[in-house]
Amino acid sequence: MKVTNKIIMALFIIIMLSLLIISVIGIFMMKEKDIVLQGQIEAEEYNISGLLPGRIESIYVKEGARVEEGDTLVHIISREMLAEHKSQKALQKAADLQSEKIDSGSRKQLIHIAKELWDGTKADLRLAKTTYERIEALYRDSVVSMQRKDEAEAIYKSALAAERAAYYQYQLSTEGAQEQDKASARAMAEAARSNTEIVTALLDDAKLTAPASGEVSSISLNKGELSSIGTTIMTITDIDNPYLVINVREDLLHNFKMGGDIICEIPALAMKDVTFTINYISALGSFATWKATKETGGYDLRTFEIHAVPKMKINDLRPGMSVLTKVDR
Prior knowledge:
By secondary structure, the chain is of the alpha+beta class. It contains five helices and 14 strands.
């Protein structure tokens, strides 16, 4: 009988200890754990495109190559623009000669020169108008920037002014208004010089250079292919200045302060306890709002985008790498 009581007592103690252990484990399991947020390394990208439409003559870099600011990347050839430049130079020369020698030239010669200048400016005006209309359509489709549209508009207006000046010069030459001929000739020479400078500026854009140091992340066009205005030929990524982008729900935002530090892990580099400093906090649009439901109650939670830069240079840190950080609830 005594043995039986001891066995029962032992079993009771074992059961009580088991319940105690289970309770302790349950308490630890019910304790709220830190939340792990995942972000991604990103870097600024520069799309390389030009104002000069033409055929790609040479590409001087390959994907993955390191480039420095100012390095020549692409050479574009536009035979049409070269011919236009030659034509503008000839018109400028003729206009200058007319302006200088208008008093000594015969009326028949003046009329002939004025007619040639007018015909040339009419052709230039047609080209400038067509180019402007194309760029304006691309601007409406958000393909090219406002600056490029304004440049094309300026070329068009300059060509229009040159055509009008040439027309009036032609009219005056036929009417024989000698003093007005002189003034108009000077204006025509100035317009021709301006058009030549515009075409020269476009040809200067035939060789595209790197706007910043970085790495060639992609090349969209190959040698021999046609490149239109605003078309991206290649992309340069500024891998020297990577930064962390992480989206944070509003109820966790108290863990992130402007100018504050966050401790992160970078799995791809097997690095832990990496310090990043927050330099940007901004709310995302309504598409990123966490909607409260009738079952859970509460309120709608917005999502904020956080940017942070590494406190010290990290070798081999590249865009696309995942970054993890723990935050309190």
